Amino acid sequence: RCVLLQTLPATEFASINGDVRLLTPDVVEGWSDLVHCPSQRLLDRLVRRYAETKDSGSFLLRNLKDSERMQLLITLAFNPEPLVLQSFPSDEGWPFAKYLGACGRMVAVNYVGEELWSYFNAPWEKRVDLAWQLMEIAEQLTNNDFEFALYLLDVSFDNFAVGPRDGKVIIVDAENVLVADKRLIKQNKPENWDVWYESKFDDCDKEACLSFSKEILCARATVDHNYYAICQNLLSRHATWRGTSGGLLHDPPPEIAKDGRLEALLDECANPKKRYGRFQAAKELREYLAQLSNNVR
Q1: 269: which of 48, 177, 231, 279 fits an S-S bond (Cβ 3.0–4.6 Å)?
Q2: Which domains does the chain have, with CATH numbers?
Q3: What's the confidence (pLDDT) of residue 56?
Q4: Residues 6+ apart with CB under 8 A from 268
Q5: pTM reported for the whole predicted model
């Protein structure tokens, strides 16, 4: 039988004891997607906002009790989702489910609503609004005032939910989120840091495929990954899920289909033909969906 508390002293977690002042990048780098390439600024944010301690608000690791510190480290390594929800809370406008608390290794979050998949055959007006919200989420996670880029590495219809009252789209599975500190990238200037990175379209035979390099996501200041993930796996004709195809915006009204602009923007966003085409297509798609959404209301 494995007793966790008896086993931990023999692991690397035990080396981060009460004498350690700060949680530093060299210690936790690569433990999970959340800290694949952590900056000190990100780690201070994680510790300061860690909710399962009476001393919440301090970024000093040594202010945590031994049990609190160990729980934080284990969560960071094996199930970082609660830390994403705490560090980028819905109360501050981030598109994640609200973290309510924990009891042992059980975590409670608020019920958002039915998963996005249940809206696959909703009326066109509803699907347009949901698609616009998804593109807005992609933009917010990519470009924000905090200069943290939150890249979604697992994007499917089951990872989003829709509020039954306000119709708001929320990310309900945040386990596979990579956070890159764009402020640090601009400061350290790794090779090609300022060259815009275009994600490669993945025409695989499985559902919800994504092609990405974590190392590149961590080293470029301008990346189109979130636009690519949303367009390819949710919105465009390339999206497949549970035996369906066509994406959330399948079967548009005749006048929209005849115009051809929506299909062209979705195709360029998912599988661009022009250099840096996805960046421009994503911008125009957000604007076009906003226009359509206003028109149908």
Answers
A1: 231
A2: 20-109 (no CATH), 114-296 (1.10.510)
A3: 64
A4: 274, 277, 278, 280, 281
A5: 0.93
